[in-house]
Write a structure and sequence with these properties.
Helices cover about 5% and strands about 20% of the residues. By secondary structure, the protein is mainly beta. The chain has a domain of about 40 residues: Rubrerythrin, domain 2, CATH 2.20.28. A three-stranded antiparallel sheet has the order 2-1-3, with no helix packed on it. A hairpin with a 5-residue loop joins strand 1 and strand 2. The longest helix has 4 residues.
Length: about 70
């Protein structure tokens, strides 16, 4: 049962919903069905380009590497 992040196209509300099966999602602020699923930053956590080691300092979590 994943939690999804949404943006309401009608009122601009950002919200999260715990989704069970084919549950219909509506905006909790304005009840609009005009919503878009956002790409969660949590789902991208840990995704890296190239190898897992920093090329300049040999650390696996260097904040200066791109």
């Amino acid at each position: 049962m994943p939690i999804y992040e949404y943006l309401c196209k009608s009122c601009g509300e950002n919200f999260e919903v715990l989704v069970f099966g084919e549950k219909k999602v509506v905006c909790p602020k304005c009840n609009s069905e005009q919503i878009t699923k956002k790409l969660s930053s949590f789902s991208m956590k840990g995704v890296q380009k190239g190898n897992s080691m920093c090329s300049s300092c040999k650390s696996s979590s260097c904040s200066t590497c791109k």
